[in-house]
Design goal:
Helix content: 25-40%
Radius of gyration: 16 Å
Structural class: alpha/beta
Strand order of the largest sheet: 2-1-3-4-8-9
Number of helices: 10
Oligomer: single chain
Distance between the termini: 14 Å
Strand content: 15-25%
Shape: globular
Order of helices and strands: EHEHEHEHEEHHEHEHEHH
């Protein structure tokens, strides 16, 4: 019997691989990998978001290259989970890389060729983005409400402390490819999402072969890690 696929987790904007810790703890028997997107800074460890400014952040093309490299490094089949903005570089990168068996869009941007994240939300930054146009980055306002509405308050505070800047270029660059045209996909709608409204997710989910639902905020890996792990086990077992 062949081994089950590995699981590659691709974080969203302003976050990093740190956000998956609780979910990974629920999957001790699964080969779980993560990738750090160059467009997202970190507020610690000497990364671009460290005190003193955001430094040099990558763009969508850099993120897509990082995702492609992470998939290529996996020897065998892989299921790729993209959260929020992470859906954009995953969609750009994975049409013909590695042995990808399925894409899972977790309240993520499952966009069409020519779309950018910014164009998909109407072309103007939402009111909860603090935009630093000259420096080329943005940070979220009210992340506790927008991202972590159903997360334990202490865990939410820890997450907020780790949020870093996100490059504006990553939001405005259009897709040149759309991997979901050639790869099977599942869309997971988070029904209490404060960042990507459920009606927006519903529209994007029409592009997926399968639609699942979680009664969760924008960050089920923090608020519902066991439930999300169970859902992903089902996707791995397909």
């Amino acid at each position: 019997m062949s081994a089950p696929p590995a699981l590659l987790l691709v974080h969203g904007a302003w976050h990093g691989p740190w956000c998956w810790r609780q979910l990974i703890d629920e999957l001790p028997d699964v080969d779980v990998r993560t990738v750090a997107l160059p467009s997202s800074g970190s507020s610690s460890g000497g990364d671009p978001g460290a005190p003193g400014g955001p430094g040099v952040l990558g763009d969508l093309r850099d993120d897509a290259a990082a995702v492609a490299e992470a998939v290529a490094a996996i020897d065998g089949p892989v299921v790729v989970v993209a959260h929020s903005y992470g859906g954009v570089p995953v969609t750009e990168a994975l049409g013909s890389v590695g042995d990808v068996r399925r894409l899972v869009y977790l309240c993520a941007f499952q966009l069409e060729v020519g779309d950018s994240l910014l164009s998909s939300v109407g072309g103007a930054p939402p009111p909860w983005w603090e935009v630093h146009e000259r420096e080329g980055y943005t940070v979220p306002l009210e992340p506790e409400r927008v991202f972590y509405g159903d997360v334990d308050p202490e865990l939410a505070r820890q997450a907020v402390a780790r949020i870093g800047p996100q490059s504006l270029a990553s939001f405005s660059q259009p897709l040149t490819r759309a991997a979901w045209h050639t790869l099977p996909s599942t869309y997971v709608i988070c029904e209490a999402d404060g960042a990507t409204p459920p009606f927006v997710q519903e529209a994007m989910s029409a592009r997926a072969q399968e639609v699942r639902r979680l009664d969760a905020s924008h960050s089920p890996f923090l608020s519902r890690p066991a439930g999300l792990a169970a859902l992903l086990r089902e996707e791995l077992a397909r």
